[in-house]
Design brief:
This protein is mostly helical. The protein has one domain. Helix content is 77%, strand content 0%. It contains nine helices and no strands. The protein has helices at residues 2-12, 18-34, 36-46, 48-52, 54-73, 82-107, 113-134, 147-167, 172-197.
């Protein structure tokens, strides 16, 4: 039993797996294509919100770089550099923080308990990642994603996006909050199960 709780306590520290970063980035790209208001807000970063502020331009470059790195690393077998981890971490932190705030503002009047749980989870993960990055102890895993992991999680994500975005017509903050919850919580559960029971994928699926 002690081994169980020790393993669980280690997993409670947010470790952002390649799959988590990839799924968040893929969700953002999907919504970027289908939601003009998200594109407008994103492009405003590069205009410095009409003031050409270097801060916002640098922020836009970090987010863009983090998105690209997160997508690329899901398909290549190479250890991440410290700079790459930092860019990916700040990128997902910014996306998750802004998304959670906007979704929370949107859902507060309706008091939807289920959606508020998703928003609260995303905010919690953002705060924990921010604390870790402030202490330079943030943990973006170097574990390589297998082809099977990328394929299965992508199919599920596309299903979520089709249902939430195109069928239910949720706003982009709500849809992205759902996708971030899936990307972090589901991977958190599956990696714990695989790690605790020491499960191994067949070589053909790696």
């Amino acid at each position: 039993m002690s081994e169980f709780w020790n393993t669980l306590s280690q997993q409670m520290k947010p470790r952002f797996h390649e799959i988590s970063m990839y799924l968040v980035s893929l969700s953002f790209c999907w919504l970027f294509i289908f939601h003009p208001e998200l594109r407008h807000g994103f492009f405003m970063l590069f205009s410095g919100f009409e003031s050409m502020s270097p801060f916002f331009i640098i922020l836009g470059l970090i987010v863009t770089g983090g998105l690209l790195l997160s997508l690329i690393h899901a398909f290549i077998k190479r250890k991440k550099l410290a700079l790459e981890k930092a860019i990916m971490g700040w990128s997902v932190l910014g996306i998750s923080g802004v998304t959670s705030f906007l979704a929370g503002v949107e859902m507060l009047p309706s008091r939807s308990s289920m959606m508020m749980v998703l928003v609260a989870w995303n905010i919690l993960m953002s705060i924990l990642l921010l604390l870790q990055m402030g202490m330079q102890k943030y943990d973006i895993s170097d574990d390589e994603a297998s082809f099977a992991e990328v394929f299965v999680t992508t199919v599920i994500l596309v299903g979520i996006l089709l249902f939430a975005d195109l069928y239910l017509h949720f706003s982009w903050p709500l849809t992205l909050s759902i996708c971030i919850f899936y990307s972090t919580f589901v991977v958190f559960i599956t990696t714990w199960v695989v790690g605790y029971f020491d499960l191994q994928l067949p070589d053909i699926l790696k």
